[in-house]
Write a structure and sequence with these properties.
The protein is an alpha/beta fold. The protein is about 25% helix and about 20% strand. Among the domains are: about 160 residues, Rossmann fold; about 60 residues, no CATH class. It is built from twelve helices and 17 strands. The strands form four sheets. Strands 1-14-13-17-15-16 form a six-stranded mixed beta sheet, with helices on one face. α3 runs parallel beside α4 and α9 crosses α12. The protein is globular and about 65 Å long.
Length: about 425
């Protein structure tokens, strides 16, 4: 079986440029909701002095991840912000000091077994860096009485246009990637690991293939350069041939899927004890003169990045993430989260033409990797037909946007699918 896909222009303008670490901003706004799951509660108060890496937010819920200060400074406000999904959550605002220092508690964790390793990952604040932001320790801490993982899949596909942050992480930190894979294999007792990477990244493939030849049970899997190659279900099938069914997690087919940047971070944390407080971002778009990847502190605001990026015109649209699955930013003071991997600046895209009636061309059906019928799903959603939405398997939709991309009528098919899933969750 061959999965459907679409061909996208790559626009990988920053792929061959080394990552740059930009100067610290005057302040950072650190959201207490940095992950998929329950937001944290601030542990600091206005006026408190904090140091880099200090724990400033925690939560007792299982699906959550601690939040740390990305700078040394003074807590000048604890406010409420509206995140990219429109939800309100608390944020700690830290005024940056001239002198930066790591917090005294930071030290490499002591890891002797699986439990130690999972606890270390939990304390690091690690979340999935591929976009979803699921707390990493929860993914690692699967119940071995119910299932097991025999295959570790490293997602290095990076299939959306413009984004090269994962690619640069591999080129610049390949040794950390391999070390991170070895740590996960060791402590979770996983026999085989595959690094899934698209064929349009020959330098990375060559480098990793050479390194993996010296390792036991780590292989590079060259994947077709097609979208959405990096989607979890697609990656699992194209790498192992296993099919992840509706409602199942990868562990159901004995796979553990992790983003390459997440694995690199775990390797760094085990060595240094420095939690997840920085992010590598691609800065690009159709008005950017000098596309680049940058290292920024978590909590830096979009307005600071606008000062740094070299644009020809004032953008009329800014996207966190890629042009296919990213979200448009409505507030120039929106802070960067752990989960962000790119900020794209565009001009001339906001005034698209209005959708026209469906001409039943079938392009959306041929584009869907999950073999869904987007036109039928749209009709079912518009009619509020819960049973038909279930029958048409709307929950299999990955929100890749391929159906909307190929639609000649410019219908909002992918958007309707996400609204349909919300409708199902709320019971109609």
């Amino acid at each position: 079986m061959k999965l459907h896909s679409v061909r996208l222009p790559h626009f990988n303008n920053s792929a061959d440029k080394s990552t740059v670490e930009i100067a610290l901003p005057e302040k950072v706004v650190i959201s207490m909701s940095q992950h998929g799951g329950v937001p944290c509660t601030p542990l600091v108060q206005i006026g408190d002095k904090v140091k880099t890496g200090q724990l400033i937010g925690s939560c007792d819920a299982v699906i959550s991840a601690p939040v740390h200060s990305s700078v040394t400074g003074t807590v000048c406000d604890i406010t409420e912000i509206i995140n990219i999904m429109g939800k309100r959550n608390k944020a700690v605002v830290v005024q940056t000091s001239e002198e930066q220092a790591l917090h005294e508690d930071i030290a490499p964790p002591v890891v002797n077994n699986r439990e130690d390793f999972i606890n270390a990952v939990k304390n690091s604040g690690s979340v999935g860096l591929g976009g979803a932001g699921f707390p990493t320790y929860v993914k690692l801490n699967y119940d071995r009485k119910l299932s097991y993982a025999d295959t570790l899949l490293i997602n290095a596909a990076e299939c959306e246009p413009y984004i090269t942050s994962d690619y640069r992480a591999i080129i610049e930190q390949a040794d950390e990637l391999i070390n991170g894979i070895k740590l996960i294999k060791k402590y979770l007792e996983i026999e085989t690991a595959y690094i899934g990477i698209e064929a349009d990244k020959p330098k990375a493939i060559e480098k990793l293939t050479e390194m993996c030849a010296k390792e036991q049970g780590i292989y590079v899997k060259k994947l077709p350069s097609a979208y959405p190659q990096g989607a979890e279900k697609v990656l699992i099938y194209n790498t192992t041939g296993r099919v992840l069914k509706e409602g199942e997690l990868p562990i159901s087919v004995h796979c553990l899927v992790m983003n390459c940047s997440s694995v690199i971070f775990i390797s760094e944390y085990i060595k240094t004890g420095i939690p997840l407080i920085k992010r590598r971002l691609t800065l690009d778009g159709n008005i950017v003169n000098k596309p680049v990847n940058v290292i920024v502190p978590v909590g830096i605001q979009l307005s600071e990045l606008l000062k740094y990026v070299d644009v020809r015109k004032q953008p009329d649209r800014v996207i966190f993430g890629g042009p296919m699955m990213g979200s448009s930013v409505y507030d120039p003071e929106m802070p960067i989260l752990k989960t962000n991997n790119a900020v794209l600046f565009f001009e001339g895209t906001a005034a698209g033409r209005e959708p026209t009636p469906c001409i039943r061309c079938g392009r959306c059906v041929r584009a869907c990797s999950m073999n869904l019928m987007p036109t039928e799903l749209e009709s079912a959603y518009d009619a509020g037909d819960i049973e038909q939405l279930k029958k048409l398997k709307v929950n299999l939709c990955m929100n890749c946007g391929a159906c909307s991309y190929v639609c000649p009528a410019k219908r909002n098919l992918s958007e309707k699918n996400q609204l349909a899933k919300i409708l199902l969750r709320n019971g109609g």
